[in-house]
Write a sequence for this structure.
């Protein structure tokens, strides 16, 4: 807490040349409100759904005082490591109860209980949202890297450069193309060779 040093001389001190020093504490300043921006939506029941991450969706429920994470649909990789990092981050920041982390009622979902705030002027739900925004900032480089990688792969497949492609031109039709023979089942050649050998031996 900042302090001020205030000199208050009395008449006797002024006449004698002595100085009395009094330390006065400044009144605490009101903290400035913090604003965060996230891609979020409020559900009809009051839950706050956050969609910033490319692998998981996050739901903060004020009524249940909980945080639930769901893997996004059609994700191309396992979402559990991301969920594990998220809940470890919340635990380290003192937002959730460590022993409350468990599987949710929906497949691959995880949930945890938010601590009830005992600090004056600190709202537990607002704190959970703020800490979630900090986690998103930490994840932003990885999210952007996956986004650019997916875009580059799509361009590479659908519109390759001249050094990665050739002109196909006219390809005549034929009964058989390549080394695959549709008339032979897997391991069929080995069976056919054994039959031919038996015929030759006879």
């Amino acid at each position: 807490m900042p302090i001020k040093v205030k000199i208050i001389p009395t008449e006797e001190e002024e006449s004698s040349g002595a100085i009395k020093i009094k330390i006065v504490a400044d009144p605490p300043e009101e903290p400035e409100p913090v604003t965060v921006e996230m891609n979020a939506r409020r559900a009809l029941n009051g839950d706050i759904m956050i969609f910033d991450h490319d692998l998981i969706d996050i739901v903060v429920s004020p009524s249940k005082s909980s945080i639930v994470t769901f893997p996004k649909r059609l994700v191309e990789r396992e979402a559990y490591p991301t969920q594990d990092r998220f809940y470890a981050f919340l635990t380290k920041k003192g937002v959730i109860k460590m022993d409350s982390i468990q599987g949710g009622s929906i497949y691959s979902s995880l949930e945890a209980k938010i601590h009830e705030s005992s600090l004056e002027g600190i709202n537990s739900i607002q704190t959970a949202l703020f800490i979630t925004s900090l986690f998103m900032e930490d994840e932003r480089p990885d999210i952007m890297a996956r986004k650019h990688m997916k875009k580059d792969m799509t361009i590479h497949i659908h519109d390759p450069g001249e050094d990665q492609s050739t002109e196909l031109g006219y390809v005549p039709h034929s009964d058989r193309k390549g080394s695959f023979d549709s008339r032979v089942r897997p391991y069929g050649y080995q069976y056919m060779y054994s039959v031919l050998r038996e015929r030759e031996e006879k």
Observations:
- Strands lie at 3-7, 21-25, 40-42, 48-50, 56-61, 66-71, 102-103, 110-113.
- The longest helix spans residues 124-158.
- The domain at 40-156 is CATH 3.30.1360 (Gyrase A; domain 2).
